[in-house]
Amino acid sequence: MRLSKLLEGISCKVLNGDLEVEINAICFDSRKVGKGDVFVAQRGAHVDGHTYIDKAVMQGAVAVVCEEVTGEKHVGVIYVVVENSSEALGWMASRYYGEPSREMKLVGVTGTNGKTTTATLLYEMAKLMGEKAGLLSTVCNYVGEQKVPSTHTTPDALEINALMRQMVDAGCRYCFMEVSSHAADQRRVSGLYFDGAIFSNITHDHLDYHKTFRAYIEAKKGFFDRLPESAFALTNADDKNGLVMLQNTKARKYTYSYKRLADFTGKIIEKHLDGMLLNLSGSEVWVKFTGDFNAYNLLAVYAAARLLGDWDEAEIVRVMSMLVPVSGRFETMLSSQGVMAIVDYAHTPDALENVLGTIAGLKRDGLVITVVGAGGDRDRTKRPEMAAAACKWSDRVILTSDNPRSEDPVAIIEDMRQGVSREDSDKVLSITDRKEAIKTALMLARQGDIVLVAGKGHEDYQEIKGVKHHFDDKEVIKEIFKL
């Protein structure tokens, strides 16, 4: 494709060269640049691509898109200066793959908690409606029925568009994707044509990247600010920042709520460990989910399905009763001795409180034992809050490793212990080895007790000193339960 076509509609300044040159591929990683490629120099959180411009040229780049030319200009190389390289990359990637997002109905889901569940359930709903759909999520990406492993909540702009092109070529009419705050801030979703956006909630997370809670909110709000008039913007009116998302959007504005007047309202009629009876905007439906947090996810799914405008309301309600929980999200297992184990991805203080609050509302006479850790190389400020949340709602707590990454797991647990009060200290154990921690919790449990293993959910690995080792909470529990 010609460079001029890739840059169409992007405000830029051409320093030298002919934009009619044919481009072989787009690269933002200098190590992957080949002859005839265009190199896009991005400013990242840890690395500045501008320092690799010379290397990219030496490897065969015929054009460079950057925010400034930092060194000498190479003869025969086209230099194009843009205001934001990451924004330009998004639009260039979309053009390179033939703007696949225009050929499907694309819905993005953002928020601290509930993104995976909401996006995945919309994907499952489309399939149950007889449609082909794609999914971009933390757990896994899907091109129709084909599973494509995911490495980030939201892939880079080139990977997103490559996957969407595969979806279109496979006959997908819909695509549902998680949009993380990192992805919105880094413009990984620029150049995509969204038909709708959903906001679930916002709580303490990712402050290692965003630095302040205000910046975290602004990153998510920026996604809504850039929506087109033709899209719908659906927000949780019960979250105190929910309406903030709608302040500057050009999209059609809608709200959902369990507590106040909204465009889509819900009510929890009955709660059980194996499901709930919900009223969704006047229609009653039994769902195979439990917990207030899941009630919100399901109301968002119902509202988005209505707003897509392709399916009959009665059919939407019927299909909602067929949906099943997402892997690693409040998954339950029962031992022959009557001990219930629950695996959940809860890895923020709010998510942990939501899950434990749900368990507290459903348990009878037994104890609640919680196994929880915190990730290394991530937001340290939430570590004591995680421990405090676990102590508040549990009878016993075992602090353990999550993904320590490059950090010392003992030091992470010590950070968590700062959130344990003197009164709670007697009910808290620290066991660094996660398998031993789970084993100990299940050994302590008696008939009627509930053991929550939180933090990793669907993940089937542990990252220790930069190396990924196979580890699956569910496998460990099943092995101990002899299931």
Identify the notable features of this structure and list them briefly.
483 residues; UDP-N-acetylmuramoyl-L-alanine:D-glutamate ligase; Udp-n-acetylmuramoylalanyl-d-glutamate--2,6- Diaminopimelate Ligase, Chain: A, domain 1
Structure, explained:
The longest helix has 17 residues, at 292-308. The chain has helices spanning 3-6, 53-58, 85-96, 115-128, 157-169, 181-185, 207-210, 213-225, 292-308, 313-320, 349-362, 383-393, 409-417, 434-444, 473-481; strands at 12-16, 26-27, 38-40, 63-66, 78-82, 105-110, 133-136, 141-143, 146-148, 174-178, 196-199, 232-236, 252-257, 264-272, 275-280, 283-287, 331-334, 340-344, 368-372, 396-399, 428-430, 450-454, 461-464, 467-470. With 483 residues, the protein is α/β, with parallel strands linked by helices.
